[in-house]
Write a structure and sequence with these properties.
Two copies of one chain form a homodimer. The N and C termini of chain A lie far apart (about 40 Å). The first copy, chain A, is α/β, with parallel strands linked by helices. Strand 6 of chain A pairs antiparallel with strand 6 of chain B, so a sheet runs across the interface. Chains A, B: It holds the Pfam family CobA_CobO_BtuR.
Chain lengths: ~180, ~180
């Protein structure tokens, strides 16, 4: 549905191996919310069983965020992950097409699409992702994060930033820091 | 003041020419605030005369943010910029050493330190920046953003991410988008 009075929504991709991809998406959610936009963030890998600082604050200020993953792949069976992805993807399609949002963030969708330790193509097909991107409501901005972005997604994006790690304190033996990384 | 019961604060740097540096710092502010940390963001280039979506929301939720710049260099005289940097730097030193914050974000400080179109070394001396980093309260995390990070700052950082532009819609003639970039 083309609405000439409305600016076409953009596709933004944050990819690369460095820190800051999800964090930048959070910042974008805050900026857009400040401008009165209706923002939705769906997380494909993170699980609702863990606590995240951003979720605590988003709940408080009313930014809608759903953690649809079950944590990292090595802690669960492939079948558990497949089920979670299937559910996350059905949920995403419905939400995107509902017309209820101006900005939708699909956090770590790239990681999910790059899973190759078990088959995902029947529960999260790339061609459906591309169809959803193309067919989203006209003015909707979409932000897709995660390592190893598919070339087909990069091709369709308006903005792609690659976060490259120059230095990381993990290398010095400092573990993930509360309030900084989660 | 060394407090052995407290984890040493980290220095995080977001640099590079790509989009997402300030945005990632905003996300980090949100995450840290969600964890009950006291966050301060000081912006070195952005001016309080313009409106930013993030500022609107931060004011609402009580994250302290100060825009101490006067906008981009080509719109003002060198003397106006020098005065603004002088004031921003004095303000920063006082705030950092006050002990009132767990996380301090110095947004676009790298850009300010890389100005070479007029002399800045007497109002924003690199050696003082390095001294402040080293001498900050023990548990304080510091986030420094902006292009062209000085090597001396990278050397002292615990985490450095370089945001690289892969693709940008400016190149297709689309101007800055409300709610996405400001």
């Amino acid at each position: 549905m083309n609405q000439p009075d409305k600016q076409r929504g953009l596709i933004l991709v944050y990819t690369g191996d460095g820190k800051g991809k999800t964090t930048a998406a959070l910042g974008l959610a805050v900026r857009a919310t400040g401008r009165g936009k209706r923002v939705l963030m769906i997380q494909f890998i993170k699980s609702p069983d863990r606590t995240y600082g951003e979720k605590i604050l988003f709940d408080k200020i009313g930014i809608e965020m759903h953690q649809k993953g079950i944590g990292f792949t090595w802690l669960k069976t492939p079948e558990e992950h497949r089920e979670a992805l299937k559910s996350a993807w059905a949920f995403t399609k419905e939400k995107v097409m509902s017309g209820a949002y101006d900005v939708v963030i699909l956090d770590e969708l790239n990681n999910a699409l790059a899973i190759n330790s078990f088959p995902i193509d029947d529960v999260l097909p790339l061609h459906e992702v591309l169809e959803l991107i193309e067919g989203r409501p006209y003015g909707m901005h979409m932000v897709i994060t995660g390592r190893n972005a598919q070339q087909a997604i990069i091709d369709r994006a308006d903005l792609v930033t690659e976060m490259n790690p120059v230095k990381h304190y993990y290398d010095e033996g400092i573990p993930a820091v509360l309030g900084i990384e989660f």
